[in-house]
């Protein structure tokens, strides 16, 4: 059996691994680390939760220790803060003895502060392509000419043309990084985009893939539950109630298809007194991050998320993943259910399947090379709560529509501004500044008025005193 020492890892890094509770390399680490240390490009396709992050973090840190400078390594990830932060944290924890400087460049955060950080030459930059490309286009205070490692985590997502298309931004980034570099590509689902990936990793990359037939992990118990659309929510409430009753220590991620559904389900589950919190792409970045932190620290035990949380997130306490909708693509299914049963732990996934989704389940089963088993449920129990659940959902929908109205108005105003060529954020900032100045002016005016009044009162008092004095004298 391989050890980190046999892979050529330095003593100090092995000590860091030990402190993190990492004793032996996983298969992807065992196979990819030596190739990376040799200086080869690398493509690693390994199952969810199998330690792909450390498979690139460890060799990069070893090379960085030999020749430390900034910017040494650039890591690209498709999703914002959550995943980028997680990767940066692994670098930070494992690279602590190096006094590692890292920097996270993602959308939704202050661009000026980010530019300042970039100019300080951090060793590691973890970024989403869109925001990093913006910095490259607009600033000359940093350069990536000497980058030694370019890493694409969730590489297939970065290259596919989904609702967020990264290809243009990737072109910009690839234009400023040196041709002589090591390129490392990782994902649990690399095979669809293999050819495009090979063109990014130019130097005959070392390719490693899990050899097992089944593409999900053994420790995952994969279930489905046939539920007509109208009773889906009742099944969901029933399932969560069951987990709450049967386990002391439990935590669940529920995936759903839209931001709106995510909001409604969260409101609905809260009406049933479940500690639920949401994570979706329409939320502000800071809010998303705060919600995720509350879920991670177990304050909230149910996270309702869209596919922003489907990839990469590593939350060891998650024992259950529920797919409120059957994912349309097998690949998304693989990443979603991979949020549980990580690093050798056990986990359960339950996919709610309506009469219209059977073909999707077939496609999933074909891809993962395994059959989902039916999850047994006592229908009677579900029927008991059916009306109450559906009424509650309707109430939540009405509530959301009314609160959403103002928000939509604000969004439309912003859209209009963009169409007129104005920057809504800048306008907002100016508006706030103007309001501040007006407020200060008002305060100042009030103060002046007050002093004038005071003086007037004093003068009147004095006048009164002198007339009284005169009257008394005359008397
Ligand atoms: N050699 C190891 N032994 C035990 N645990 C490990 C080892 N390497 C990494 N881990 C832990 O395994 C967990 C999952 O790792 P990681 O997030 O890197 O998985 P991944 O392969 O990137 O999964 P995904 O495809 O979902 O992104 C982490 O908590 C990490 O600390
Ligand atoms: Mg990962």
TrEMBL record:
SUPFAM superfamilies: P-loop containing nucleoside triphosphate hydrolases. Its EC number is 3.6.4.13. This is Probable ATP-dependent RNA helicase DDX49. It is found in: Nucleus, Nucleolus. Residues 454-468 have a biased composition (Basic residues). The lineage of its organism: Eukaryota, Metazoa, Chordata, Craniata, Vertebrata. Gene3D superfamilies: P-loop containing nucleotide triphosphate hydrolases. ATP-dependent RNA helicase that plays a role in various aspects of RNA metabolism including the regulation of mRNA export and the levels of pre-ribosomal RNA. Regulates the stability and synthesis of pre-ribosomal RNA and thereby regulates cell proliferation. Also possesses antiviral activity by recognizing gammaherpesvirus transcripts in the context of lytic reactivation. Its main location: nucleus. InterPro entries: DEAD/DEAH_box_helicase_dom, DEAD_box_RNA_helicase, Helicase_ATP-bd, Helicase_C-like, P-loop_NTPase, RNA-helicase_DEAD-box_CS, RNA_helicase_DEAD_Q_motif.
């Amino acid at each position: 059996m391989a050890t980190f020492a046999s892979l050529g890892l330095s003593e100090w890094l092995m000590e860091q691994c030990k402190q993190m509770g990492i004793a032996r390399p996983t298969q992807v680490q065992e196979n990819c680390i030596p190739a990376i240390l040799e200086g080869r490009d690398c493509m690693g396709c390994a199952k969810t939760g199998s330690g792909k992050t450390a498979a690139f973090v460890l060799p990069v840190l070893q090379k960085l220790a030999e020749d430390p400078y900034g910017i040494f390594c650039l890591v690209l990830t498709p999703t914002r803060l959550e995943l980028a932060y997680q990767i940066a944290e692994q670098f930070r924890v494992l690279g602590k003895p190096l006094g590692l400087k890292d920097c996270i460049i993602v959308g939704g955060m202050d661009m000026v502060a980010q530019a300042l950080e970039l100019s300080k030459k951090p060793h590691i930059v973890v970024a989403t392509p869109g925001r990093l490309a913006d910095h490259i286009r607009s600033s000359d205070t940093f350069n990536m000419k000497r980058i030694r490692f370019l890493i694409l985590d969730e590489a297939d997502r970065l290259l596919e043309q989904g609702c967020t298309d990264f290809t243009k931004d990737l072109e910009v980034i690839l234009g400023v990084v040196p041709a002589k570099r090591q390129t490392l590509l990782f994902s649990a689902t690399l095979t669809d985009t293999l050819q495009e990936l090979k063109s990014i990793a130019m130097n005959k990359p070392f390719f490693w893939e899990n050899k097992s037939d089944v593409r999900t992990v053994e420790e995952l118990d994969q279930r489905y539950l046939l539920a007509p659309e109208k009773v889906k929510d009742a099944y969901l409430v029933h399932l969560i109630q069951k987990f709450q009753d049967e386990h002391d220590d439990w935590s669940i991620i529920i995936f759903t298809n839209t931001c709106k559904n995510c909001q409604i389900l969260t409101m609905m589950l809260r009406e049933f007194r479940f500690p639920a919190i949401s994570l979706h792409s329409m939320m502000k970045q800071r809010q998303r991050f705060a919600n995720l932190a509350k879920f991670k620290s177990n304050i909230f035990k149910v996270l309702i998320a869209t596919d922003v949380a489907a990839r990469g997130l590593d939350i060891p306490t998650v024992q259950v993943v529920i797919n409120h909708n059957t994912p349309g693509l097998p690949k998304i299914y693989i990443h979603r259910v991979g949020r549980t049963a990580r690093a050798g732990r056990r986990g359960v996934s339950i996919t709610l399947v309506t009469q219209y989704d059977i073909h999707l389940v077939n496609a999933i089963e074909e891809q993962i090379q395994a059959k989902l088993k039916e999850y047994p449920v006592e229908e009677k129990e579900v029927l008991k709560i059916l009306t109450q659940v559906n009424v509650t959902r309707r109430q939540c929908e009405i509530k959301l529509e009314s609160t959403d109205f103002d928000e939509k108005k604000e969004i439309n105003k912003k859209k209009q501004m963009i169409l007129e060529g104005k920057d809504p954020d800048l306008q907002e900032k100016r508006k706030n500044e103007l309001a501040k100045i007006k407020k200060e002016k008002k305060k100042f005016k009030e103060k002046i008025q007050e002093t004038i009044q005071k003086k007037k009162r004093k003068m009147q008092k004095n006048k009164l005193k002198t007339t009284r004095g005169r009257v008394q004298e005359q008397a």
